[in-house]
Amino acid sequence: MTKPTVSITSAAISGSNLNIALTLSSGANDSVVKLDIYVDGSYKKSFNTNMTNVSFDAASLAAGSHDIEVRAFTRFLSCAAANTAVVK
Questions:
Q1: How far apart are CA 14 and CA 29, in angstroms?
Q2: Closest listed residue to residue 83, CA positions, set 2, 11, 33, 19
Q3: 43-61: pLDDT as tens digits
Q4: What single DSSP character describes residue 4?
Q5: What would the pLDDT profile of 7-17 be if each residue is shown by its tens digit?
Q6: Chain-centre distance of CA 24, in angstroms?
Q7: Going from the N-terminus, what domains does the chain have, and what CATH number goes with each?
Q8: What's the N-to-C CA distance of the chain in angstroms?
């Protein structure tokens, strides 16, 4: 089972939303079927469609820098992660 690959192309807070652009692996055995998003180590949201550009409400984040982690899963539950930081 091949691990997927995920990289964060950009991550920015715009208004009250955190917008993340991603590059994901593709192929018969390593297609990403689910993303989990964590902010400062806490789970925030999952996505299973339209996963190259995801967005969710970040209004509750305090001002300052926040660590973003994206975990990408294949249908066989192989996982890869990418990290970045955003400033609100």
A1: 35
A2: 11
A3: 999 999 999 999 999 999 9
A4: P
A5: 999 999 999 99
A6: 10
A7: 6-87 (2.60.40.10)
A8: 38
CB proximity list for 23: less than 8 A, separation 6 or greater:
5, 6, 7, 9, 52
User: Who's near 60: CB < 8 A, 6+ residues apart?
Assistant: none
| Segments of 1-88 assigned E as strands | 6-14, 17-24, 32-39, 42-47, 53-57, 65-74, 79-87
Residues in the chain: 88
Query: What's the whole-number mean pLDDT along residues 67-81?
Result: 93
Q: How far is 11 from 2, CA to CA, in rounded Å?
A: 26
Q: How confident is the model at residue 31, as a pLDDT?
A: 86
Phi, psi angles (nearest 5°) of residue 59: -60, -30
pTM: 0.91
